[in-house]
Amino acid sequence: MFEPEQTGGKRISLAAMDGRRLIDMKIHFYRNCTMKFTYGGKTFLLDPMFRKAGETHELAPTLYPEKPPLTDLPCDPKEIVEGVDAILLTHMHPGHFDQAAADLIPKTMPFYVQNLNDKDLVRKYNMKKTQTINMTLWTHLDDIRIIRVAGRHGDGKIQHVLNTMQNSSGILLEKEGEDTVYITGDSLWCRGMEEGLGANPRIIIAYLGYAHGEGMHITMGLDDLQKIAARCPDAKIVCVHMDTFENQELTRAELRNQADLLGIRDHLIIPENGEEFEA
Questions:
Q1: What are the residues facing 28 on neighbouring strands?
Q2: Of the residues 92, 139, 205, 257, which has the maximum number of CB atoms within 10 A of its CB?
């Protein structure tokens, strides 16, 4: 039987409850949504943010008295970039990519972004192999298909969202003979997310926190998470993007408590900083 979490250790199993073969995938979660994982024989680094605790000064005041990030990385960031084949970036934001990460990432490493605007911004960090992820045509890393999924980074009018922050995209990873992975990015429930879930992913990396700003909520909360669990009842949902940045109402502790009450705890993995997952 699948155990959603192990206490007192750093390794979590993602074995399927129904006996269906899962992808050969390992995940090492570091902080916020920065994680390294293997898929289809490649190692990806997702949303690398390496700055030290308290070093973010370009954001408006948050719920926390301290400047974000609230914690340091659980290891030397040089260890994080070891063995990485490619970078995935859901969107440009101080909590998802920064100069500290750019200083350590090899400049010729494949770097996948959501659109031309982000491509231009990342190239300012001297990244030489930046590539946009297409929504209709497959982008490839060898035999792995990388597909962009639309997101909605705020529940205000879309123009208000675009005027006040970068929109964020989801990412699908597919490979022949492997189960699909879906990364939601900073998005609320929307048509794009429904399309991403329609690919029947077996692992979903969900960006939560129920963060708010500019008079709107900008990341998912419990209602959105319940919809994901109902739409993909056989998937394992890795819950990240909490306890690190900005005005986030939903903490990991609150999520654990509420997930029990809502009856969705068995669907969830809620990692602490530094925990490693293994299929």
A1: 36, 276
A2: 205
